[in-house]
């Protein structure tokens, strides 16, 4: 489920009246997603996505996230633009919560990506990194390897072992990743969470990259490593498909070639990416009540990926 707040027809019609988007004809809540409430709105002028920010997002960060969408879409990246209200504001407050109206983009998120799709998503990521170079705003990530290790430390060995007896192994492994973490790789604004469910596609074409709410200033090669970990394995992280990885990287390099230093760092960056998703998933696992209507994601899916990157080193990216 991803509609945490009830908004009725009258609430939505009243809200829409603040925008130049015509009259509300119909709406429905969107089931996908876990962090925010989303509705698909149909008005006399077309379709729009309404997002209400519920968890993990600071309202103070919204100008950064929403301005980034406008910056990237103006540079022809496949990213939805935000619809500003009649006063020019990118977001409004409803009952104390921030809401934004966002362009609807067509497309479906692939559940079993093909090589052609992995290549396209790599190219879209490279295009985004280049276009974001001159975005004037910055944001520090709150999920650097050190932060994610602290999250796991706070979960504690016993609680981690309660999720899976092998999970506490991540603590010493994570400490080594943090100690070896490369600094000074070329940076831009990075998406940081470009999983298949955050990409919309029509056939092999990327029609939308969405959910930029972990975007931050960071190393571009780290973003590529996150995308590799998210796209090139089966769901449980047991099997990596090297052809998907090769296609993803080739697509990326068609827009932005990697330096030797970035290429050499990929195995460690990918381990750091896995550490980040193990941490947020473990934290959610422990904090989400058993009877909540949100499907908990298994941190072990990313411990398996991490083991793969440790065992295969550079050949994971051959
Ligand atoms: N701009 C958009 N165009 C079309 N569909 C969208 C758009 N933004 C979000 N969606 C739909 O809403 C779902 C949840 O959005 P998302 O931003 O990923 O939410 P969450 O942050 O809760 O994960 C997506 O899977 C997609 O189906
Ligand atoms: N992609 C992350 C979860 C982040 O959730 P999102 O719905 O906001 O993309 C994971 O798989 O752990």
UniProtKB/TrEMBL annotation:
Enzyme Commission numbers on file: 2.7.1.39
The name this protein goes by in its record: Homoserine kinase
Pathway in which this enzyme or protein is active: Amino-acid biosynthesis; L-threonine biosynthesis; L-threonine from L-aspartate: step 4/5
Key words, A-Z: Amino-acid biosynthesis, ATP-binding, Kinase, Nucleotide-binding, Threonine biosynthesis, Transferase
Similarity section: Belongs to the pseudomonas-type ThrB family.
Entries under InterPro entries matching the protein: Aminoglycoside_PTrfase (IPR002575), Homoserine_kinase_II (IPR005280), Kinase-like_dom_sf (IPR011009), Pseudomonas-type_ThrB (IPR050249)
Presence of the UniProt keyword Nucleotide-binding in the record: yes
Lineage: Bacteria, Pseudomonadati, Pseudomonadota, Alphaproteobacteria, Sphingomonadales
Domain of life where this protein originates: Bacteria
This protein's encoding gene: thrB
Top enzyme class: transferase
């Amino acid at each position: 489920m991803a509609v945490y707040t009830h908004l009725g027809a009258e609430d939505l019609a009243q809200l829409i009246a603040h925008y130049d988007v015509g009259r509300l004809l119909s709406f429905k809540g969107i089931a996908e997603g876990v962090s925010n409430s989303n509705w698909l709105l149909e008005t006399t002028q077309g379709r729009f996505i309404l997002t209400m920010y519920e968890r993990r997002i600071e309202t103070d960060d919204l100008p950064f996230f929403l301005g980034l969408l406008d910056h990237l879409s103006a540079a022809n990246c496949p990213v939805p633009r935000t619809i500003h209200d009649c006063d020019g504001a990118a977001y409004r407050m409803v009952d104390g919560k921030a809401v934004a109206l966002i362009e609807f983009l067509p497309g479906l998120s692939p559940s079993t990506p093909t090589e052609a799709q992995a290549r396209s998503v790599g190219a879209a990521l490279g295009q985004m990194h280049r276009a974001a170079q001159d975005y004037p705003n910055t944001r520090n990530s709150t999920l650097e390897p050190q932060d994610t290790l602290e999250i796991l430390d706070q979960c504690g060995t016993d609680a981690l072992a309660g999720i899976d007896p092998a999970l506490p192994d991540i603590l010493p492994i994570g400490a080594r990743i943090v100690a070896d973490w490369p600094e000074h790789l070329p940076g831009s604004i990075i998406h940081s969470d470009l999983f298949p469910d955050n990409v919309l596609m029509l056939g092999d074409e990327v029609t939308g990259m969405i959910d930029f709410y972990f975007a931050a200033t960071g190393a571009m090669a780290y973003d590529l490593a996150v995308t590799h970990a998210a796209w090139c394995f089966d769901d449980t992280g047991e099997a990596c498909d090297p052809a998907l990885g090769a296609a993803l990287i080739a697509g990326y390099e068609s827009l932005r070639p990697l330096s030797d230093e970035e290429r050499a760092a990929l195995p460690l960056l990918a381990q750091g990416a896995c550490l980040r998703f193990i941490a947020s998933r473990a934290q959610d696992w422990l904090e989400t009540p058993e009877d909540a209507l949100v499907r908990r994601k298994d941190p072990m899916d990313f411990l398996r990926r991490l083991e793969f990157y440790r065992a295969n080193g550079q050949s994971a990216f051959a």
